[in-house]
UniProtKB/TrEMBL annotation:
Keyword terms, alphabetized: 4Fe-4S, Iron, Iron-sulfur, Metal-binding
Positions of the 4Fe-4S ferredoxin-type domain: 4-33, 47-80, 81-110
Protein name: Anaerobic dimethyl sulfoxide reductase chain B
InterPro entries in alphabetical order: 4Fe4S_Fe-S-bd, 4Fe4S_Fe_S_CS, ET_IronSulfur_Cluster-Binding
Highest taxon of the lineage: Bacteria
Molecular function, one GO term: metal ion binding
PROSITE patterns: 4FE4S_FER_1 (PS00198), 4FE4S_FER_2 (PS51379)
Keyword Iron: yes
């Protein structure tokens, strides 16, 4: 059984938003809502300045509060650990929206169902392709693959680098990790 994981290396990310644009194109994301955003965070004082680029999207929790609270079964998990929404069952009660600690869900202004990152499950992953955001990144800041395959690029990266998981203390067990930016803020 495959278990898909994505890693965002903040050291490589230049905040170009290519991933976010690719996601919109690939998934026909309506204006005003996002499956993925890359936030710029500036800190420090001159000359010790630091700029971080932080990805915000569904982190594909293994223990997903959105699935637990969904009263209709519209929010569910695939065998590969991907959290999806069955639009036909979604009654837009927004319980999942409130339960998600990552602010990863939105109400689709057109369908009124809940939307979020799907790891491009239906349109790409099922056809053996990587997610759109991963393929367009010009600096290879995003790595995606099966962690149950020890020879996959993502497994090798996790073995080599210190990959952290957002809000790990909540025990939601995210499948989207990040490598913390260490650049900047070192003027001596
Ligand atoms: S495409 Fe790559 S470099 Fe550009 S914002 Fe996204 S992750 Fe960062
Ligand atoms: S990040 Fe939010 S939407 Fe995604 S699986 Fe976790 S609780 Fe659900
Ligand atoms: S995996 Fe697909 S749906 Fe998720 S952020 Fe990337 S392009 Fe968007």
């Amino acid at each position: 059984m495959k278990k898909y994981v994505m890693v965002h290396d903040e050291n490589l990310c230049i905040g170009c938003q290519g991933c976010s644009v690719a996601c919109r194109n690939e998934n026909n994301v309506p204006d005003g809502v996002y499956r993925l955003q890359v936030h710029m965070k500036m800190s420090g004082t001159f000359p010790r300045l630091k700029t971080d680029f932080i990805r915000q999207s569904c982190v594909m929790c293994e223990e997903s509060p959105c699935v637990t609270v969904c009263p209709t079964g519209a929010s569910f998990k695939t065998d590969n650990g991907i959290t999806l929404v069955d639009e036909r069952l979604c009654v837009s009660c927004k319980y999942c929206l409130l339960a998600c600690p990552y602010d990863a869900r939105f109400v689709d202004p057109i369908t009124k169902a809940i939307g979020k990152c799907t790891f491009c499950f239906q349109n790409r992953l099922s056809a053996g392709k990587e997610p759109a955001c991963v393929t367009v990144c010009p600096t290879d800041a995003l790595v995606f693959g099966d962690v149950n395959d020890e020879n996959s690029e993502v497994s090798k990266l996790i073995a080599k680098k210190n990959v952290e998981y957002p809000k790990a203390h909540l025990n939601t067990k995210p499948s989207l990790g990040f490598i913390k930016n260490t650049k900047g803020g070192r003027y001596e």
